[in-house]
Amino acid sequence: MSDPSQACRSATFGLPWPLLNDGLFYNDVVRASDSGLTLIHFYSTKHKNSAPPKGWLQRIQNGQIAVDGEVIRDPDTILRIGSKLVYHRLPWEEPEAPYFLQILYEDDDMIALNKPPGLQVLPGGLFQQRTVLTQLQWWATKPTSSVACQGPHPVPVHRLGRGTSGILLCAKTKLAKTRLAAYFADGTSHIENSSKTSVDLCATRKVTKIYRALVTGIIGEDEVIIKQPIGMVQYPGVAKGLYVATPSGKPSLSKVEVLERDVKKNLTLVQVEIQSGRPHQIRIHLSFIGHPLLGDPLYVIGGHPKCFGSENVEDNFAQDGLFLYFSCRGFLRPANPVPGDCGYNLHAYQVVLSHLSNNEVIKITAPLPHILQTKQEAQEISTY
């Protein structure tokens, strides 16, 4: 088994973010069933999750919607079948985010990055430009980049939560993307189709992911196997729904190993090996057993969010455009905690996988934040 991480730890890249992003453009084509509707009725019914009627009215009057290439400000304009509609979401200042990325490993097929906490992997929500994907795109255009002449830019093949740091695998070719995605999907399918223990399953996987986390409370057992299913529920501020612990969810498996207990601070340092890849799995599983991650703004004991309270979206969306995105330092966040909120301590510490070309076993390690080091590790680093 090779551990190539040490050789690449000095390699970094990243460009500062511009003040504003480029905005977004959303396209629609009027179908026969929508022909004859007014512009305001079309948007307020077809895209009611994006904004209430008051919000769409302001967007139309601001000149943010074009019909067949012509900006239309009359909300009562009648639509005809086949017309092409474009809604322009105005540029906005995204929340602060780091931009430097460290290369832990690189070959002809993939790159392993050390993602800092606070940086989103793929575009979504308020973060459309300040993402790992954007930095990879920019890096690939530099003449000095190792991927400048190899075709498409590298793309992440899995996700880490915005507040999670550590190893992120990115594919440099379409074939590598397909194979790496199959590695991750294969592990999850084993959980869904097998009743084996996590130890038995470990030998069948082509990729193993190990995390470090700091949780509240003292975990009594030295090792805990968590098999709680994870599913989705409706939640204000998250359009597609929120992942939570629920009996009706999909099978999920985490193996938790206690590294240190701090009785005085009522904290436990753990190492977690996940054998399925559900969104926010570690946060949900640890909170499900009564030990939420220290500083987690969303998940509490039981694997559920702190609150399901509704928020008043009428005013939020009615002020779309200049007022909404250029007040309050450029953005307006949801009233309730959302999955992208940071503050917890979770680090993708180690990945072990079979090389895509020669099946050699590769172990990639990301340097641990001080707060997630054992006392012995911290002492060894300080004397290094």
From TrEMBL:
<feature type="domain" description="Pseudouridine synthase RsuA/RluA-like">
    <location>
        <begin position="110"/>
        <end position="287"/>
    </location>
</feature>
<dbReference type="InterPro" id="IPR050188">
    <property type="entry name" value="RluA_PseudoU_synthase"/>
</dbReference>
<keyword id="KW-0694">RNA-binding</keyword>
<dbReference type="InterPro" id="IPR006145">
    <property type="entry name" value="PsdUridine_synth_RsuA/RluA"/>
</dbReference>
<dbReference type="InterPro" id="IPR020103">
    <property type="entry name" value="PsdUridine_synth_cat_dom_sf"/>
</dbReference>
<dbReference type="InterPro" id="IPR006224">
    <property type="entry name" value="PsdUridine_synth_RluA-like_CS"/>
</dbReference>
<dbReference type="Pfam" id="PF00849">
    <property type="entry name" value="PseudoU_synth_2"/>
</dbReference>
<protein>
    <submittedName>
        <fullName>RNA pseudouridine synthase 5 isoform X1</fullName>
    </submittedName>
</protein>
